[in-house]
Design goal:
The complex is a heterodimer of chains A (about 210) and B (about 575). Chain A is of the alpha+beta class and about 210 residues long. Chain A has one domain. Chain A has 7 helices and 8 strands; from the N terminus they run βααααβαββββββαα. In chain A, strand 3 and strand 4 form a beta hairpin. In chain A, helix 1 packs across helix 6 and helix 2 crosses helix 5. Chain A is globular, with a radius of gyration of 18 Å. Chain A starts with a strand and ends in a 5-residue tail after the last helix. Chain B is an alpha+beta fold. Chain B folds into 3 domains: about 150 residues, no CATH class; about 220 residues, no CATH class; about 100 residues, no CATH class. Helices cover about 40% and strands about 15% of the residues of chain B. Chain B has 22 helices and 11 strands. Classes of the chains: A alpha+beta (about 210), B alpha+beta (about 575). At the A-B interface, strand 1, helix 1, helix 2, helix 4 and helix 5 of A face strand 9, helix 20 and helix 21 of B.
Chain lengths: ~210, ~575
Amino acid sequence: MISVSLNEVYSETYKALRSVNIEWSLAKDCANKAKWLAQHGQYFLGSILKTADLYNKKDISISINKNTSKQPLSSALMALLLVEYVSANKITWEGYIDSTKFLLAAMGIIAEEQKIYLILENEKKDIIAFTNDKTIYVNSNLDTNVTNYYCLKKFDFVNKKNTKFTSFKKNKDVTNLNDECWKRLKSMAFETYVPESETSKYGAGY
Amino acid sequence: MKFQKTQNNLDYNHPIRPPSTVMKLDRLGSFHQTRLSFTRRLIDDLKYQKSKIEIHQWDIDNSGIGSAIIKIIFKNEILSLIIFCHSINDEERTDRVIAEKWDMTFSLFRGIPNKNELNQLSKNLKIQESGRHNSKQLTLSRANKSQRIFEKVLNDLSIGKQPSQKLINDVGYLVRTTAVYGNGKFGIEDFSKTNGHIFLEKPFQAEMLTVYLVRYFSIELINFLAKKRGGKNSVILSKHLAKHLGVGNATGLGMAPFLVNHQELIHQWIYNRETALSRVYSIKRLDKKTQNRIINYIHQAFKYSLQWKVDDQLQSNKIDKLSSDLKKILQNKELTKFLNFDYPIRTLFDFYKDNITLETQEILNSVFIEPFPELFEDLLNNMGADEKKSVSIDYNVNDILEIIKYNYKWALKIDTTKPEENYCFWYTSQTKLEPRLGITKKDAGIDKQLPFDIAHQIKQTVNILNKLPYDMTVAEVMVNQPKLRNIIKRIITNNSLPYSEIQNNLIGKDMKPIDILRCKLSFFGASKFDPKSNLWTRITLFQGAPLPNELWKTNVNDWLFPNLPNV
């Protein structure tokens, strides 16, 4: 295991995703979600590496309209855009999505920053998670990180029935990461660097 | 803008200068230290905290090699600066970030390290970026002795002689740092973890404290070595010379992207500076004592300009013009009369502003802010900012086009098709992972460029948005065209934080990165900017600042534009 800072989580994640030509904004969104997950005691690194692989192989979608169980919408890349879209257009979105914890992170971020109430349900209409007053509450009885068909919408009232929900708490950092996975992320990040040219060196104090 | 009226007769609100005036690189590159700068804030905080600074451990040998710990005792906490002094050859000593060996390496640490921690620090500090660092470390830094001055000063002191004032003034420091890393770099503590800490949660206070302690260490070290070398014949550095020594720093492009990447923070710093200025321009009358203080500060600025010597011809010309502008102002027999008018500061500035350089305008602004810290206590305590990760959902296409029309006029005016507006590109270099500038037509790597072509992105966005329904939400635009998200987020941020965008083409031929560096360094509190090219500069921090044993004194923070008499 290696202990890393939240700043390193952010900066190495977005650079690694840039190395496979993911748009700047999507790479930065993903890095912010990874940092949020780390701050809230959730693992994220394996999903980032997997997302980069799937994106490379075109086995993942970044279209909110075109996604299937075989090519689900990438939560790591698109979740923040999705929650903003659902919130701004006041619509219900349904579709296949992977690594749902990044969607939970996006819901958590928009709840914290814009106090927007959202609800996430699975195909059976079980509540997976909802946001309320800057906090996200997650169904403790369900696996919240499986690729599946989901429904995301704004809400006014949640009927929680007898389900037990727990809130994600900040300051439970997961910044002790698998050494090999971290090395791989860093080596991907390194791909975004450029060997210095002689003109770049000129006047730079070499 | 509203603020509390004070004894200084603030009876109207002078308009704050617009971003179109302030956010130009030539003006940002003329900024000087002000009372809001972080070095000044540090001295306030150290005094307020009744902090005590003392040497906790000193294992330095007669040749200056070894380790030391300096302890800083606050009301509720102890921090320590861990220092290792190494032996290096002269030819290994470079003050650029590309170096791999240094005379000294440092880290500001929470508490006092135990034996294991100290052992880890001794292995990792000396290799800096290549090491893996501890989350109790708040900063990571290194410095070299000044080859121009260190040995000469040591020699003089060891034979019982004070060094020449001219030498001390010309160089201004015994040691020069090349980087002071904070905020989670290489495994050290994240800045976000300092939230709620009365002292460390303010921007760059951990870094400034590190530099202040490095300065203290450099003075202690030279006194110690002089005694070891000269024995009974030696003397310690006189207090007034010690006080005139700061810490040098060599700063390059590594600092530049910060101003592009941290819109919220840059807005906060510049908006607060401009707000402080508008408040002093709103003062209706000045009493005699304050008038004299302002005249004295202009005198000090003038003397400082005479003692500010650089090799760079462009900056040297600017300094000459600054001296002649200030001399003219001081020789004006009407100066006191201006200060007796209603709204005296505004009147004085308005009288001169069209006939003085930007360098002079901005040094005067530093002077004008100086006597009135009570007018902007709220601003001093509010130099940080939260950075948003999501994009506000309240905007549609029409809103974005309107914001661009008003806030990005500067970008729309640029002909982004011209080669000179596409002259260079920013990238991160493999060597030391530092940002660099490449020449578009010459260098490889444009496919990996950093997205600093803001004007170009604005124009592309306008073209795309004009083809979309005006009432479409930007969330819908972005979800369909993720490549626009980065720039739309900037535009929306700029709408509420108008001082968040540099209004120049950052990839144009005319762009001088040195201006970006100087702007940021002025907020740090740097003085004696000494550009070595358009890409890097030397500066001095804490020159003239009180020494640790003076922190209890009244007016301890009165050290704007330090100069030595008879130089």
